[in-house]
Specification:
By secondary structure, this protein is an alpha/beta fold. The chain folds into 2 domains: about 190 residues, no CATH class; about 130 residues, no CATH class. About 45% of the residues lie in helices and about 5% in strands. It is built from 15 helices and 5 strands. Strands 1-2-3-4-5 form a 5-stranded mixed β-sheet. Strand 3, helix 4 and strand 4 form a beta-alpha-beta unit. The chain is elongated, with a radius of gyration of 29 Å.
Amino acid sequence: MPTNVSQIHTGAYIPPVRRISLFSPNEWESFIEEWVEIKKNDYFWVDNHWGAWDMWRDVIWYIENPQLKPDNYEWDCYQCKHYKNPLTPTNVYVEFGKLLYYTFNKKYPIPNNYFFVSPHGIWTDLNDLLNHPLNLKKKIVQNWDKYCKDKITKSDNIKLEWLFLDYVNGFDFKIFKKIKVKAIIEEHKKHPDHLKTFWWSLKEREDFSENDMPGNIQKHELNYIKKLLNAYESHGNIQIKDSWELVGLYNNHFSDARLWFYYAEQLERLYRDSLPIWTFNDFKGEILDWVKGLNYIDYPNWFEKVVKIEQESKKVEITSNPLINVSVMKDRVGICHHLSNEDKLTWISNE
């Protein structure tokens, strides 16, 4: 298909995961803060700690009120690091060390979960360590002097010995985990600024034709097809038991209606991973609001009503929905049949 309008204005489509990999540190921080706003409903309280000497807890997610249980409140930690490349063990040994040191000294309780979040994800070697907690502990102990001892506090060298070493050996390293950026993007769709962040361009619409739709009628089509057959009967004063009986005008329209129906279905499918879940429903809603007044007009027969509403759907003025830049007229007509399928549009008054 031809290049869509959004690509003319903003360039080639950049998938959200790739877009995040291009974030500056400030953009990454803003994105995480927006994600935090959404996650607030899942926790008692959420707090951000940005900076190098914050006891190394970037985003603190309190499950319980820390003021009521200051020594043993439940919480999760999301360590949101921005590096140019995927995280490696050497990038984060010090972060393991800080959590071990500060929990040993009871500056805060051990979190239920400690997640690493990075725009580029993590390298295989770090992923393998997170999946094998005993190996992770062994590597931290082996690399303590090089990556942790003089980097945990500004003033002291923290030696891994005596009671502290016993604490590390008995620590449950299963709390350390990764979270995929794709999962964060999915949750970020609920944020009002999601489109502003990621809608630089929607991917190019794939070509679509009758060869791309099922030849046989599918179960989820039965409702709107039944209504179409009833409309044809009212126009031709005939009885139609099944779609295979259609000839001439009715067969041509029926073939077009199915194609339009699947055009609209393709529109929803292609962009549901890039846009908030409400986007396609809002698109349908604007078309319904425009054409539903035609339901109250008398028609010589119900097929003329179908055609009238199909034609009117092409005139709908949609200005704010991002799908406007990738949709075609066939989508709008197809959406009429989606609305019929959902019983939001009726062709015959007693349907």
